[in-house]
Predict the 3D structure of the following.
Amino acid sequence: MKHIIFGGDGFVGRHLAARLVSDGEEVIVADIVKSDLPHYARCRHMTVDVTDPAAVRSVPMTADDMVYNLSAKMLSPLQVRAKRHEFFYPVNYDGTKHIMEAMNEAGAMRLVHFTTDMIYGHTVTTPMTEDHPVAPLGEYGMSKLETEHLAAEWRERGMRISLFRPRLIIGPGRLGILEKLFKLIDANLPVPMIGSGRNPYQFISVFDCAEAARLAWKAGVPNEAYNLGSLNPPPVRKLLGDLVRHAGSRSILLPTPAWAVKRTLDMLDAMNRPLMDPEQYLIADEECVLDVSKGARDLGWVPQYRDEDMLIAAYTEYRAKKDGTVMPARAFAEAAE
């Protein structure tokens, strides 16, 4: 049996690949890029663009293989409204479709697939369980929700597909929207919050995401969806306040009227001058907390990293990068513990 990881050179995939290799598993990383990663000395890399069905079919899959789909276009870099569909769908939806079709041809019946909590849209009930209503607020969330519809169709044909819906993933090598926050703090400038900052904000560690994927394989790939998020997320005000103090910054936290900020951001988005993606700012003042107890019950998965520690570790990496040094993944994990 092989482990085939589409998008295995990416943010989550590289940590999953490294863990499986260290466990003695045979791994094929199928990705459009190849980074300088030490575990490639012990596993195979194939250059594969998931938007090309022939390239996906070229991966040597067999009926016994375990497949993971971690290929995705994310909300960063920021896209203008007119380009969002063509940015997200070729990889997120078409790529997933190509992988499932190639699996079917090879007789491979087990898939772990990552979608997003953005499929839920506005908070209806909290904490959000996997049964929460789905109503994505943009092209990214919709592209991911439609892959869940694909999964439902293939499950009816006999595939076993575990779906994961992570909150904002934090880990080494990806800052995304956090870089704007860190620049404000470094410059001792006010840090505006959308709303009062009393609502909690929940992250999930990249290391916890990789472990969830591994445990889904170990559990026999349940035909279920699972939320991925931290435990006991703090209010935004505390989360940011702790970071400001850690940084030794003179920044102050600035509450704002959420409705006014959202309408302003809506206007800028309509003018093709977005500062944030609507899928981010439209829920920024809501209590978007995922219930992750199902993963604990079914998979034995329990998140190991706290939001406060993850954010400070990300800031530490940002500072190291500014200073011209590289923060190893192990150091990031230790800082986030």
